[in-house]
Every structure is written in C-alpha cells, then in structure tokens.
Write a structure and sequence with these properties.
By secondary structure, the protein is mainly α. It has one domain: de novo design (two linked rop proteins). 75% of the residues lie in helices and 0% in strands. The protein is built from 6 helices and no strands.
Length: 154
C-alpha cells in the first residue's frame, strides 16, 4: 500500500483527468453557462477530494466507500461533458478524449475498490504505528530523541 496519497496510481490518474476537465471548463461558452460549469466543476473537484479523504480512513472498507463516491462524481462529470457537447461547448474530439480518460479512471477505481474489498484491512494506519512502537520497544528506544536525550551511541 502506498505511504502517501500521491503514490497511488489511481490518484495520479484522477489528477490528470481533473486537469483535463479543468482545461475544458476554461472555454468561453462553457463558462457562460454558469449552472453547467459550476456543476461540472464541483463534481470534478469531488473526484480527487474523495480519494484523498478515503486515503485517510483507518479501514479499507471506509476507503472503498469514498472511492465509490469518487466514481459517482466521475459519472456525473462525464454526463455533464456530454451535455456540454450537445450545447456545442466542446468538440467531438475533446469529448472523446475526456470520455476515454474517464472510462480508464472508472476501471481503475473499480479495480482498486475490488482490491480493498479483498484485503479488508481494518487498521491501516494504526498497525504501522504499533509496529514502529514495538520496534522501538524492542531496541530499547523510547522514540524521544529531543534535546539532551542520550542515545546508545552517546
């Protein structure tokens, strides 16, 4: 499992999609349709935000729940982009590229959800904290290495 959010391939893919959609949102026609632009932007922002929030959860089941929310937001963005194409705010090629990216991201999110469901880890962060604690206890270190603290090498 990744130690940092940015190490997750699915998060990297979500950020690339986010940037791609944000570029479309800069089109003048799209910006003029405030309601559609705001809905698309909010759903687009929700994708990486939900992945990030889920990453901070202590259990895989909770993380998967947030990935489902990200996947739902992705579906909304794709729907809004189709609507924007109908309104001629973007070209067929622009839409096709975002749909391809979105379908790939959707598959990645689904695969990651299945992985988390199979692992069912219930103590993602705390386990590592306890493991480090036990390691320090086994080595005789309290982990307090502040000023004036003597170490074995002192």
């Amino acid at each position: 499992m990744a130690q940092k959010l940015e190490e997750l391939r699915v998060y990297q893919e979500a950020m690339a999609f986010w940037e791609s959609v944000n570029a479309i949102l800069q089109h003048s026609g799209y910006r003029k349709d405030r309601k559609l632009a705001d809905q698309t932007s909010a759903a687009n922002d929700s994708i990486p935000a939900n992945i990030s929030e889920g990453f901070e959860q202590p259990a895989d089941g909770a993380f998967a729940k947030y990935l489902f929310h990200a996947k739902g937001s992705l579906g909304e963005v794709l729907s809004r982009l189709r609507e924007a194409r109908t309104k001629r705010y973007l070209t067929d090629e622009e839409l096709a590229l975002r749909l391809k990216q979105g379908e790939s991201l959707s598959r990645s999110l689904g695969a990651f959800i299945r992985y988390l469901d199979a692992c069912r880890w219930k103590d993602r962060g705390r386990y590592l904290s306890r493991q480090r604690q036990h390691s320090r206890e086994d080595s005789g270190s309290t982990g307090d290495q502040g000023p004036g603290t003597r170490t074995r090498d002192s």
